[in-house]
Amino acid sequence: MLSKRIIACLDVRDGNLAKSVKFVDTKDIGDPVSKAKEYYDDGLDELVFYDITASSDKRNIMLDVVEDVARQVYIPLSVGGGIRTVEDANKLLWSGAEKINVNSAAVQRPELVAECAHAIGNQNTVLSMDILKVETNSDFPSGYEIVINGGRTRTGLDALKWALRGEELGAGELVVNSIDADGTRDGYEITLTRMIAESVSIPVIASGGAGKPEHLYEVLTEGQADAALVASMVHYNEYKVSELKQYLNDRGVKVRLRY
Fold this sequence. Notes:
There is one protein chain. The chain is α/β, with parallel strands linked by helices. The chain has helices at 32-41, 63-70, 86-94, 104-108, 111-120, 159-169, 190-199, 213-221, 232-235, 241-250, and strands at 5-13, 16-21, 24-30, 46-51, 77-80, 99-102, 125-133, 144-148, 153-158, 173-178, 204-207, 227-230. The protein has a single domain, classed as TIM Barrel (Alpha-Beta Barrel). An eight-stranded parallel barrel has the order 1-4-5-6-7-10-11-12, surrounded by seven helices. The longest helix is centred in the middle third of the chain and has 11 residues, at 159-169. The chain is globular.
């Protein structure tokens, strides 16, 4: 069995580390570069960097910040925000990213997933999905809808249908980000995560809602996620990455420990 991963999320706005609750009330909370180095030193498995206003502002990602982060860490760095073409993806790889995350642009033009997977490899192409819980009906048989542009635009696209389509197009991983749970620290959306994890054969990263170690245990076991993304609980120094890993290890979850 592969080890479960802990991934720290750096939401970046105008070069600053930012955090929101349910994609609103966004506040700047620090320096993303120093935080990246701190988490790496403490045994983090992977880092994901999101330029959270690139898509809505219709601009390219801030390559200088990506380069600064990449110089500080020697673990996989996944980057998303404003990626619209293979050229954008290649620029990120040249700047130090190992993986690219596509989201809004992929919904608007699904061929982007296949193009990136062909150009840089399935293992380096991640489909990130921002998901809102809705009424279950014929339009949304899963009970969840895809939203884009930082949660600003509803798409009418069923989340499970899009997850399956993303795998078919060549995505190597899926990020399942619950808007309803985002920033609440009340726990991941277990039902959503498990539904998608059971339906695809590629790794699923659970995102949104982590507030205490028990939440990571729940989503990695009951939720069947391959990785748990954390933000607030480490950004505000409530927990260290090494403490979270030790907690999981003590409860029989296979993780990479640094001795």
